[in-house]
Amino acid sequence: MKVLVINAGSSSLKYQLYDMTNESVLAKGLVERIGMDSSILTHKPTGKEEVTEVSEILEHTTAIRKVLEKLTDKEHGVLSSVDEIQAVGHRVVHGGEAFKGSALVTPEVKAEIRRLFDLAPLHNPPAIMGINASEANMPGVPNVVAFDTAFHQTMEEKVYLYPIPKVLYKKHRIRRYGAHGTSHQYVSRVAAEFLNRPIEELKIITCHIGNGASLTAVKGGVSVDTSMGLTPLEGLMMGTRSGDLDPTVVTFVMNKEELSISEVNSMLNKHSGLLAISGSSSDMRDITDGWEAGKPNETLAFEMYEYRLRKYIGAYAAAMNGVDVIVFTAGVGENSAIVREKTCENLSYLGVELDKELNKVRSGEPRRISTPNSKVEVLVIPTNEELMIARDTLRIVQESK
Asked: Which residues of 217-247 are buried (b: 16+ CB within 10 A; e: fewer)?
């Protein structure tokens, strides 16, 4: 079965086409600047040259039509016909409490995703646009939605509830939902396979750290706690997000600076984190360069980031009464050897012992970076959310027949 995986944003659309007989990527690409007369489609067929096209793409239906044209193009395509695509998988950020796993798209499923617009106003509306565009271009082809929040639906009430009046949960479902669930689920499974151990026997802390970042405590293969909350703002210090802070900071700053709700929300999501402390960049590569050069602001940003990351790892080891495996993944987790090194240096009380030479290796494959004597396995595992979505899509379509 060939499965097209789509990740639709408000003005962009990422795609990957899989041949699920061997889980190979046939092509991938990105449509940028949707809604403009100078939209850019970058198409990368496996084994062929990358091609870029600039044209007017005013909405997602046209974007997907352009993608399908590229996939079936005689020179740059990988399909003889659109009919070869037998299913489409979509990434959806928020599934609320309604979805504990991926689901076949139905009118009822789309209605529920729309109902959750308030919880993910920047992400769920484009997802619906992507689904509708897929249905318009490929009528009769089944669509499946995979939710970033679904993996965390196994958390207990004592974990996901906030200590605020419970009526707010009953009326508005204000609770911890988490994010990056597809990534956390994928790397925890790969970790168990890599170690050749049953995932049911393992306590794993997965560290998905990129520009957005979250940690998850995975016990016996299920999420028991995660650092992001009602929204992706809670938890770790990130590229431009503040992470945890005293809630009173919000009202205090609004009062002192006469900021509106939207302005303070923008401050916390787009102008905080590494960017705010360094004053120069939200990119960990720039922060690391500044730290190595002895620049005080970048040094402080790096140290705050590492400290909060390490503190959460310690908290989740306590939550699970131990840890067997720590996994680093995503942009920073996979590529920043110094972040991994400095974090693990101060986890010796858990029995973590890092092999500094192995830690410097960059392979693009799952690998161990702890020593044979380490009581905790430390792994670097490249995440692959698209493959996880493709697998779920294949499974659900096959089960629905």
From this structure: bbbebbbbbbbbbbbbbbbbbbbbbbbeeee
